[in-house]
TrEMBL record:
Name used for this protein in its record: Large ribosomal subunit protein bL33
GO biological-process terms attached to the record: translation
Classification via PANTHER family: 50S RIBOSOMAL PROTEIN L33, CHLOROPLASTIC, LARGE RIBOSOMAL SUBUNIT PROTEIN BL33C
UniProt keyword terms in alphabetical order: Ribonucleoprotein, Ribosomal protein
Species in which this protein is naturally found: Capillibacterium thermochitinicola
Gene Ontology MF terms in the entry: structural constituent of ribosome
Length: 49
């Protein structure tokens, strides 16, 4: 059920983080506020396809 996903920064579009989520309990895309080392600030990171 758990599947690996990649999180990308919404500002610079760099793919910074890898994590996994349960597709059955969370079918929608994941959004987390995380630190982007390229932007040097906390930004929203979204799940990519």
């Amino acid at each position: 059920m758990r599947e690996g996903i990649t999180l990308a920064c919404t500002d610079c579009k760099n793919r910074n983080y890898r994590t996994n989520k349960n597709k059955k309990s969370n079918p929608e895309r994941l959004e987390l506020k995380k630190y982007c080392k390229f932007c040097r600030q906390h930004t929203i990171h979204r799940e990519t396809r």
